[in-house]
């Protein structure tokens, strides 16, 4: 009898993965945590019943969250990741020789422990001496950050009712702004406009009210409902649309051409972002 993991994307849409076996199942103080070995995508992390990352396609999400800012910022030496306890984003960030140090702030130590044990592709950079892992609440960490950051990247779960909900508030965005260097850049995932358009809508409007420059870009991640997935950025000076056109030798999704194309917003995305963002990204093309 086949074993399947099922996730409900909406009342009328369900995603299923055929799994070989359950690798881990547990409950932390913050969320339920499971690792399933899927037939098509390999070991995969599930939090509160929602598929978060799979070995088979995680590189798309992590490359786009990391390399768009890394190739746009003139000197991304000091980087902060909030969330990202599975290690995939840290691996991509530390692949850049420009990064001098990386701080990863994860609220749930069990995510880090489980990922180290089962998600070896994600966590292979955890021994890099440039990485410091801090177990703490990201919101509280930003109350008194140790020094300004060039990049702050938020790799969190979706905001609906979970521990990440505070990371989508104006208070959080204002703390991020204060923690950034004068030319700093901030990015967070804003989900799929197909099933949760309010996340992109509310976040892009909120970020545009705090930061002088807001940009929205997208990619396609097969694991996530609808495939189409968005990111919202805020910056003080740097325009993420302007990259150094440097190739990333190991990348399987990110290229300079994909960087530029990601800011061309289809109507299903642009309808949710502020007019100022739509206009700036349309004019730049």
What is the secondary structure topology, with strand pairs?
Elements: E1 3-10, E2 13-27, E3 32-38, E4 42-47, E5 50-54, H1 58-70, E6 78-83, H2 88-94, E7 101-106, H3 109-118, H4 120-123, E8 131-135, H5 138-141, E9 149-155, H6 170-179, E10 180-191, H7 197-210, E11 213-220, E12 228-235, H8 256-261, H9 267-270, H10 275-284
Parallel strand pairs: 6-7, 6-9, 7-8, 9-10
Antiparallel strand pairs: 1-2, 2-3, 3-4, 4-5, 10-12, 11-12
Number of helical regions: 10
The total of beta strands comes to 12
- Examine the coordinates and then state which fold CATH places here, giving the name of the CATH topology of the largest domain: Rossmann fold
Amount of helix: 25-40%
Computed CA radius of gyration, to the nearest angstrom:
18 Å
Class computed from helices, strands and strand pairing: alpha/beta
How are helices and strands ordered from N to C?
EEEEEHEHEHHEHEHEHEEHHH
Features:
285 residues; alpha/beta; Spermidine Synthase, Chain: A, domain 2; Rossmann fold; 2 domains; 7-stranded mixed sheet; 5-stranded antiparallel sheet; 10 helices; globular
Describe this protein's structure:
- This protein is of the alpha/beta class and 285 residues long.
- It folds into two domains: 3-53, Spermidine Synthase, Chain: A, domain 2 (Roll); 58-284, 3-Layer(aba) Sandwich (Rossmann fold), CATH 3.40.50.150.
- It is built from ten helices and twelve strands.
- The strands form two sheets. A seven-stranded mixed beta sheet has the order 8-7-6-9-10-12-11, sandwiched between helices. A five-stranded antiparallel beta sheet has the order 1-2-3-4-5.
- Strand 4 (42-47) and strand 5 form a beta hairpin.
- The chain is globular.
- 47% of the residues are buried.
- The mean pLDDT is 95.
